[in-house]
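Section 5.1 Outputs to date
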Amino acid sequence: MYFPKELWFHIRSYVFQLMYPPHIQQKYKDHLKSIVRLPYFLKIQHQKSVIYQYSYLKQHYTHFWEAFQDKDIREYIREEIFYMNQNYDKIYAKDICHGRHSS
């Protein structure tokens, strides 16, 4: 049976909304960010790149591609690496020196 493209798009959108409501998408995004932050905490310099992080996620965490488009995942990685490059020393290193845990 043939469905018009517009109808098929609406069906797929509805299924996606049921499977990945906003709160689930946020949990996935938070998990993705925590993975991207890990090389900063472990001081692993060669893993602090978009290319490395993308490849690593693609190989070990394929479920992200079920919830997000490829271009969105790349952008989330880019944003988080940019954030960590700008703020890691300001926020996390200061908290560690003062004995505070970041939450």
